[in-house]
Amino acid sequence: MSKSAIKKRKTDSGVEHTHGKDENFEALLKPVFKGKKLTDEINTAEDKWNLLPAFLKVKGLVKQHLDSFNYFVDDDLKKIIQANQLILSDVDPEFYLKYVDIRIGKKSSSSARDYLTPPHECRLRDMTYSAPIYVDIEYTRGRNIIMHKDVEIGRMPIMLRSNKCILYDADEKTMAKLNECPLDPGGYFIVNGTEKVILVQEQLSKNRIIVEADPKKEIVQASVTSSTHERKSKTYVITKNGKIYLKHNSIAEEIPIVVVLKACGIISELEVMQLVCGNDSSYQDIFAVNLEEASKLNIYTQQQALEYIGAKVKTMRRQKLSTLQEGIEAIATTVVAHLTVEALDFREKALYMAMMTRRVVMAIHNPKMVDDRDYVGNKRLELAGQLISLLFEDLFKKFNSDFKASIDKVLKKPNRAMEYDALLSINVHSNNITSGLNRAISTGNWSLKRFKMERAGVTHVLSRLSYISALGMMTRISSQFEKSRKVSGPRALQPSQFGMLCTADTPEGEACGLVKNLALMTHITTDYDEEPIKKLCYVIGVEDITMIDSSSLHLNYGVYLNGTLIGVTRFANKFVTQFRNLRRSGKISEFISIHTNTHQKAVQIATDGGRICRPLIIVSDGKSRVTAEHLAPLMNGELVFDDFLKLGLVEYLDVNEENDSFIALYEKDISPASTHLEIEPFTVLGAVAGLIPYPHHNQSPRNTYQCAMGKQAIGAIAYNQFKRIDTLLYLMIYPQQPMVKTKTIELIDYDKLPAGQNATVAVMSYSGYDIEDALVLNKASIDRGFGRCETRRKTTTILKRYPNHTQDIIGGMRVDEKGEPIWQHKSLGPDGLGEVGMKVESGQIYINKSIPLNSTEPFSGDAGSQYKETPVIYRAPEASHIDQVMMSVSDNDQALIKVLLRQNRRPELGDKFSSRHGQKGVCGIIVKQEDLPFNDQGISPDIIMNPHGFPSRMTVGKMIELISGKAGVLNGSLEYGTCFGGSKLEDMSKILVDQGFNYSGKDMLYSGITGECLQAYIFFGPIYYQKLKHMVLDKMHARARGPRAVLTRQPTEGRSRDGGLRLGEMERDCVIAYGASQLLLERLMISSDAFEVDVCNSCGLMGYSGWCTTCKSAENVIKMTIPYAAKLLFQELLSMNIAPRLKLDDIFQE
Amino acid sequence: MSENDNKLFVAEEEEDIAVEGEAVQEVEIEDIRMIDEEEDEIDSDNDDDDPVVKEIPLNFGGKDENLHIFQYINKLRLVNHKPSEHPPISAARYKSKSSLWEIDVPLDSKAFFNEDKAKENWNGVEVQTLKGVGVNNICQYAAFMEDNQAYLVPVRTTAQLKPFFKYIDAVNLKRRQEESKLNATPASQRAQVVTMSVKSVNDSSQNRLTGSLLAHKVADEETQVDLNWAENTVRQFRESVIKESSESIVKPIESHEEYLNHLV
């Protein structure tokens, strides 16, 4: 497209846009923005990255969740209602009830949305953030047809910041008023007070043919997973002994493919051959044997073939069908279920199966013609909206069948006094939908009756460890693969995930490569209607498949819409170009993709949901369509991202279409053949990996390690963090934004909610306490607040009400003779709850609750003595302070008490820190500032890091971060370490030199102990350090004596139960080898579960109190000590009819 | 044509047109192409290297005509052109509700035909029955040229006619009946006491056939209409279309832009 055309179009649509004043763009209008003046020249190559913030402004980081949910509540719900529209009665043929419309959170009568309890209130009060589901119904009452609007059938949990949420499009003021953080991305649900995320699920795409081959077993198979609203099934076309068969779960054995095609009405073998092989003689040779197979079975007519198949169907039906009918049913609906034949014409289905067969034949002929399961283009992502839609339809069907049953029950009674109003029964079942949705989201168990599907672990509690961990969770993609399987394919980095999935962010260990993260600039499509696209294809020259005869089918390119052949085109390239032009001009949705597959002679069009796609700049005639004249209005806020789409400058490509394109990484790489240009190369990384400065200089696993650790860093969580009462919250006291930022950091607002501090690091050895990555910390820095954090822990108590009208109560404090509260009650206020600001020490009480002794029998007199004290006692190694106390009423009218306890923690020995380069270490020693080395300016380091951490890790990025950071400090600027870019090392060195420092960042330091200067120059400067959540205080544990398990009388296990430290099997071996038998005896018995038993030396069994119950005598009874576990074993053996007899002897002969 | 050298496989299909009505006509048209006005316009927009050679006026007509396309899927192209072969269609039957066509073509018994076998095994079959379902196609037109003008006539349905071996199924059915008679088990012949109970059929929904099964049932129960096969009516047909289209001029009711907008 020529330039003038763009200009023309711009006048059509671009100038009409009138944008209101936008707060987010305020900053752009300031005289200096991000180091750039308004009058500065605009450079396309450098400034095209501004499209990215523009993209994120429209799309946001969690837009995929919001889009998916919005699509569900706005469109999908209506489709579900339509598909399950009618409720008919079996009793009264006249009766009907019809759903006309459905709405969420809005009545048809009022223009405003319903009032919803604000999300933060739901969090605090353990409620579900939900909106009512209203339906409009039409039904018969007697002879009359009644319309009823706004009938509530349940409540739908609302995704935060979706278009049904009260935070939708809210400005910062409103957010503040609602106690919400304006930076919180939303995209999660609040169910019973907990924030739940429905993780993105990755699956193999539905309704597409996947061809696979096993060269060892000589098997080639084409499979398709058909998925409709009603059912899910898988159909295979598979080779067996060189012949091709159809396989399906509900057909008992494999059916020769020619028989299947004949059953579909392709009677003539000539036509079968033409459909499958076309004119290709090598294909014909491979396929010919299958024709013989069918003729051996003497099957010539469609009816014979249908009966042959019908005889092999093994589905259970209530209704008896003839073999012929079974065959018709199997072909029409069971096999390849997503193409259900409603009438007499089986041609579409026949073609689909012929195509599957053709793909198999092609793969036999050329083993390279197989598909890759791990290719991202063959994957679809299932999002919250789709998952809830599946669940809702299931619940709605259940609701309707229950509703129908209760209607039938009433209508069955022959003489009713009055006309029956069906509306009376609708409310009976309304709780099913609400509780079904709540239960599924809060437990994560997705059970769908109609697919017989049970899936666990769909939802997760939103991790609020830090802002970045919450954000990381929203972009996470979990795969359906089994984690224990040792396959490398699905875990490997796929070339096709470039720009779509983050290349660095994946966990280590068993889920490595199976859990992925979205890259920064991606979009996940929602479903789009096929019909209009089909119509459009025919208009722009696709020949309808129903008109094409078998002989000319394979001469031209086939056009496939979502995997189904809809026609052929003679001029594939021209068709594809025209289609793309229509998309670029905005005539069809920008998320519909089209690509040519020359191997299969196919043009594939995809409109289905769950494809990952990303925007790219269109290049035509070797020139980028986005030029300086477009970027200027973008930066001034005159154009937004969507305008770029409408102007045909930028378009979305999915993975398949990317494969059909030639994408230049930088503007200088554009050649005449280029079709697209990257907006910014650093978008290959995701939000979490985007925090790393200079990641392109690091060894790649280091970036992966940082992605895992970035989520554990303690920092600021949200602007409303002090208003939150979460189970456990870690907050950093003085978080700082990093000296070396990245563009991603700015885009995701990490600089506003940071998790870490800029520490001055000296890379040198100091004392012996820095081996194995241990860090030396400066005591004065810690005193000034370095690495200081606080933990906030919540305790919830519910004051229950009981059937006999008694309820739990809170008692006041108990006082001693002086009128002072007793020690345990010291932190209590007169209301029996801890007072805000009081210190609670281990053993003290902060909720003085009592429960009635008698909660079932009727209440009788004398109330005082009938309560038992069940106080909540604080137990921890360190004291806490009471931060907040909340008393409220939850959903079910019971009083709810939440107490938040706060602990302030300064770094101590063993606390874990890490830089942003996967370099973690624990604090090995805390040194007085006087003893630390200092430089010419008198600066001593906050952290000393051992240089041995560098050579093997090869984290060059960390070194450059130090230099850039140092330059920034000296220069008074924040430097950038953006991936594939950022501040250049040369420039940084220049600043250092200009400020009188060494170009390489090394300084001369003086020893704090001797005052002499150190013999080497020390690499010295600021590096951003994160404090990780693993702190010694939460882990330290020791015990002398303590609780024991009831059954074995051995010490309990684990820190939380104050357990003992186990001397295990291997330790035992060591002690034996050493010959320390008495130590062994002490550890394994005396300090554990020593037990005195009375053993009868005559029968060898155990008695008690000096009496043998077997021998009925006390004569030979000997007392001895054995482990209780051994005694338990003997008794258990006895119970199994095995008598272990002890024969006692003196070891030490006298 | 090189493809036609391979005589086993026919590369291209010839479409014939028949008109349903009192008299069934047959039209032979050299080349049927689906032409759309707008398509042409789009084409001319983009293709600079594909110059316009000639402009042909388009005429619409025959909107009352009942035009159906028959595709003879297995007819060889060579055979198709033999004039002697062409007309004889001995019978045509139609089920309008299910739009199901059945056509009998007399067999050429002169060559490659085993008359004995036909008599012995297949009850002396003499005709080849072709069967096809008419599929509705919107926006499909048949066209012919007359005086350098193209005339477009809307097509109702397209049917692909495929052989339908009624006689094999008939023989099979007969044989099966005979077998069941011969192998009649003594149990089935014994007199039985039949008790009948009246069961309320309140769950009628279960026995409702749906989808394709229903369509098959409807088609089976529908009575078919016998039609006459008429020849040499093409001339007359053409004239009526030409006459009709000359009577009125089709005007576009919306602009190019509007059309494109309502497409999707």
Automatic annotation (TrEMBL), chain A:
Its EC number is 2.7.7.6. It catalyses: RNA(n) + a ribonucleoside 5'-triphosphate = RNA(n+1) + diphosphate. The keyword Heme does not apply. GO terms for biological process: DNA-templated transcription initiation; termination of RNA polymerase III transcription. The keyword DNA-binding does not apply. Coiled coil: none annotated. It is found in: Nucleus. This is DNA-directed RNA polymerase subunit beta. It comes from Maudiozyma saulgeensis.
UniProtKB/TrEMBL annotation, chain B:
GO terms for cellular component: RNA polymerase III complex. Coiled coil: none annotated. One of its GO terms (biological process) is tRNA transcription by RNA polymerase III. It holds the Pfam family RPC5. This is Similar to Saccharomyces cerevisiae YKR025W RPC37 RNA polymerase III subunit C37. The lineage of its organism: Eukaryota, Fungi, Dikarya, Ascomycota, Saccharomycotina.
